Amino acid sequence: MSDEEAKRKQDEINKRKAEVRKRLEEQSQKKAKKGFMTPERKKKLRLLLRKKAAEELKKEQERKAAERRKIIDQRCGQPKNLDGANEAELEKLCRDFHSRIERLEGDKWDLEHQIKMKDYQINELNIQVNDLRGKFIKPTLKKVSKYENKFAKLQKKAAEFNFRNQLKTVKKKEFELEDDKEKAEGEATAEEA
């Protein structure tokens, strides 16, 4: 009986497969008339592309995070276990970190200096090339207002004018100007007459 049941099951499976094949062939014939990219296929393709892109993006982010972690571990070293550390160990650890920071700061300064030197050399070489070609770079000029000089002169005159007005008037004759003496004499002779 088990052989007969197995045959029956196999026959049923084969019939189903045949039906599915027949349906697929009919569908493919209908679709062949419509064209290769039907809206359903386009939708499926878009979905697959989005999934693939999302997976790639996720893998890229994971890869970058791992690379970042690796660089941090490489530059900073492994985290130190400070639990149960005595004062001498902590002091030694601080000295190590201090010497490392000192070394890194020195390297940083050296690199910055090299960059400045390279920039200077590049600039000098560009100037030499332009000199050889006969082309000169026009320097960028500062924008200057036409009215600045006039305004400065006006301010200066105003300051002088204010200074004269703020001076105290002096009644003593020794500080008197010659013009003022002549006026005073003219007034005195007029009063006498």
From TrEMBL:
Name this polypeptide is given: Troponin I
Compositionally skewed regions (Basic and acidic residues) per UniProt: 1-29
An individual GO BP term: muscle contraction
A Pfam entry, by short name: Troponin
Annotated spans, Disordered: 1-41
The organism of origin for this protein: Scylla paramamosain (Mud crab)
Keyword Cytoplasm in record: no
SUPFAM superfamilies linked: Troponin coil-coiled subunits (SSF90250)
Keywords from the named record: Acetylation, Actin-binding, Methylation
Any one GO molecular function term: actin binding
Family affiliation: Belongs to the troponin I family.
UniProt entry tagged with the keyword Acetylation: yes
CC annotations in GO: troponin complex
